[in-house]
Amino acid sequence: MKPMPRPKQHIILIQDDPYLVASRKAILERYGYSVDIVESVKAARQRAQQFVCDLVIVDAQKAHDTALQLCEEIKQNNPKLSVALMTGYHVYLHTDCPDEIIRQDEGPEGFIAKVNDLLSPTTA
Predict the structure, then answer these.
(1) How far apart are CA 30 and CA 7, in angstroms?
(2) What is the layout of strands, in order, in the sheet containing 10-15?
(3) What does the pLDDT read at residue 98?
(4) Which pLDDT value is given to residue 1?
(5) Which of 110, 115, 101 is nearest to 31 (CA)?
(6) Quick check: 115 and 59 in contact, CB under 8 A?
(7) What backbone phi and psi angles, to 5 degrees, belong to 33?
(8) Separation of alpha carbons 39 and 6, rounded Å
(9) Looking at residue 3, what is its pLDDT?
(10) 85 vs 13, higher pLDDT
(11) Fewest C-beta atoms under 10 Å: which of 14, 19, 87, 94?
(12) Tens digit of pLDDT for each residue in 27-73?
């Protein structure tokens, strides 16, 4: 008997830089993820209750402090949901959120490796 294929995992990418949307989405889709784009922190706040996904990646360069607040709000509403903050800044966090920080200078390989790690089933 063949094992059942794993369902496609769904990612919400909150990206406020229109120049990066296409490339980040293309990288994720190339690795088999389904991706929805939300183009601002404001829009993400409006949709926060509607998120049905496996991972939220918050990449909000222009509203960094607001992005951190958004991460915390998402985790408060759904503590089991994985949230990653993607940033080019050196970040010191005094919070349980996000689950991961993805540095922009890690390149596509580092980006997808962290996404894969967040979405891989954990073995105890």
Answers:
(1) 16
(2) 34-38, 10-15, 55-59, 82-87, 100-103
(3) 63
(4) 43
(5) 115
(6) no
(7) -90, 150
(8) 28
(9) 43
(10) 13
(11) 94
(12) 899 888 999 999 888 888 888 778 788 999 988 666 666 888 888 88
**Domain covering 10-119 in this structure, CATH number:** 3.40.50.2300
Paired strand residues for 10: 34
- Pick from 80, 77, 39: nearest CA to 58: 39
Residue tagged 């050196």 (tokens): 90
In the predicted model, is pLDDT for residue 12 greater than 70?
A: yes
Residue 62 has which token pair?
Answer: 């222009």
Residues 6+ apart with CB under 8 A from 36: 10, 11, 12, 13, 53
pTM for the structure as a whole: 0.70
Unique residue bearing structure tokens 């830089």: 17
> DSSP string covering 5-21, please?
PPPPPEEEEEE--HHHH
